[in-house]
């Protein structure tokens, strides 16, 4: 379970589409409380940085159920999945950008799906834990 949480992928549509109104964060159940707290912090940050009021709505459920809902047309701005198959569902339909949390996952994905569809970006800061 912990490995799945650490391997979570975020598929993010540009927040510029929010226009100071609302966005939808679609995620799997275990992250409900995390995002409840994190979303409020992000709303405060967005208000301070852009002077815009932002509302973040949440949709939580089983990971595959959520991935299929997005694939079937649920218009999500932020999508968080923790199962490789669910991430594949969205990738195969060209939905969103993926953030992989382990560098070795990037290589595995490139090997499986081909390297031409991906850009590897390394963070400017790394924390050793």
Overview of the molecule:
- The chain is α/β, with parallel strands linked by helices and 129 residues long.
- Helices cover 41% and strands 19% of the residues.
- The chain has five helices and five strands.
- It has helices spanning 2-6, 32-50, 63-71, 84-92, 103-113, and strands at residues 9-12, 22-28, 55-61, 78-81, 98-99.
- The protein has a five-stranded mixed β-sheet with strand order 3-2-4-1-5, with helices on both faces.
- Helix 2 (32-50) links the parallel strand 2 and strand 3 (55-61).
- Helix 3 runs parallel beside helix 4.
- The radius of gyration is 15 Å and the shape is globular.
- Residues 1-18 have low confidence and may be disordered.
What is the topology?
Blueprint: H1 2-6, E1 9-12, E2 22-28, H2 32-50, E3 55-61, H3 63-71, E4 78-81, H4 84-92, E5 98-99, H5 103-113
Parallel strand pairs: 2-3, 2-4
Antiparallel strand pairs: 1-4, 1-5
What's the quick description here?
The protein is α/β, with parallel strands linked by helices and 129 residues long.
Q: Mean pLDDT, nearest integer?
A: 75
Overall geometry = globular
Helix tally equals: 5
Q: List unreliable stretches of 5+ residues.
A: 1-18
Distance between the termini: 19 Å
Please estimate the helix content.
Answer: 40-55%
Q: Main β-sheet: number of strands, strand sense, barrel status?
A: 5 strands, mixed
**Strand proportion:** 15-25%
Order of helices and strands: HEEHEHEHEH
* Estimated structural class: alpha/beta
How many strands? Answer: 5
The order of strands across the largest sheet is 3-2-4-1-5
Radius of gyration: 15 Å
């Amino acid at each position: 379970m912990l490995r799945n949480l650490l391997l979570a992928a975020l598929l993010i549509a540009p927040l510029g589409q929010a226009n100071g109104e609302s966005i939808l964060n679609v995620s799997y159940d275990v992250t409900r409380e995390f995002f409840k707290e994190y979303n409020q912090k992000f709303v405060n940050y967005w208000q301070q940085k852009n002077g815009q009021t932002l509302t973040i709505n949440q949709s939580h459920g089983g990971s595959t159920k959520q991935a299929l809902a997005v694939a079937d047309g649920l218009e999500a701005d932020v999508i968080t999945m923790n199962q490789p198959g669910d991430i594949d569902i969205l990738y195969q339909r060209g939905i969103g950008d993926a953030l992989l949390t382990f560098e070795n996952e990037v290589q595995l994905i490139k090997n499986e799906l081909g390297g031409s569809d991906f850009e590897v970006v390394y963070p400017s800061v790394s924390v050793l834990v």
